Amino acid sequence: MKCPGQDTRYWKPGAVFEAKCPKCGHEVEFFKDDTTRRCRACGHRFLNPAMDFGCAAYCQYAEQCIGDLPPELLAQRQNLLKDRVAVEMKRRFKKDFKRIGHALRVARHAEQIGREEQGNLAAILVAAYLHDIGLSVTEKGASKGAAWDQEDEGPALAREILTRLGAGEGLIEEVCHIIGRHRAPGPEEGLAFRCVHDAEAIADLEERQKADPLSRDSVSQANETAFLTESGRRLARRVLSPAGP
Questions:
Q1: N or C: which end of the chain has fewer CB within 10 A?
Q2: With 60 as the cut, is the pLDDT of residue 1 above it?
Q3: How far lies 76's CA from each of 54, 121, 160, 185, 213, in Å?
Q4: Which residue ranges form the domains of the chain, and what is each CATH number?
Q5: Is the pLDDT of residue 245 over 50?
Q6: Distance in angstroms (rounded) separating the CA atoms of residues 67 and 64
Q7: pTM of the model
Q8: Among 5, 1, 207, residue whose Cα is nearest residue 101
Q9: Distance CA 113, CA 158 (A)
């Protein structure tokens, strides 16, 4: 079945047009369903300026439809996936606003750490939103969210969500690894893992601090032992405001 926007039955006047080559200015003829055309004058290949690529930001078959996606569309696609994952997380936790707030806090810290560390923000943010998603299943059962149960349930649930949303297999594997091991990091974890780990550590310390303000010594000790990135340590020092000596 053809995408309606590229089916000739729905075409209107102007479906065949000319566009100037951005390199040399030569006129290049486009059909509405051409994704790219090569300029006969200079050989430059460029995207169809009249084609709406909006659906490719979320369609899992976009690569098959239009081939290699341009960088700006890839960025849009990753941003849209992140937003849809956040919605899915909220839907799974329903009225558990404490869990939702925690996930949003972890994601906010993870984005800041990830930017400073120049990590893969798609993997970092998706994993941050879903890092405790297994608790939406385990807390309904007798185990009441035991860590080992949620780390079994979490990757499977994350895989189901991300597959349905059309995420790539590489991203799914990385996110599932982070979710399955984020409470027990190995000796050689990747950058995305370390960013999410540190973001969660900061969020946990913030929540502890609301109930029992941390001393300066406690924050200093946490900075030495709890974090896996330098950006995480710096953010912890900024976010946590120790009360007392």
A1: N
A2: no
A3: 9, 12, 22, 31, 40
A4: 15-66 (no CATH), 71-239 (1.10.3210.10)
A5: no
A6: 6
A7: 0.66
A8: 207
A9: 22
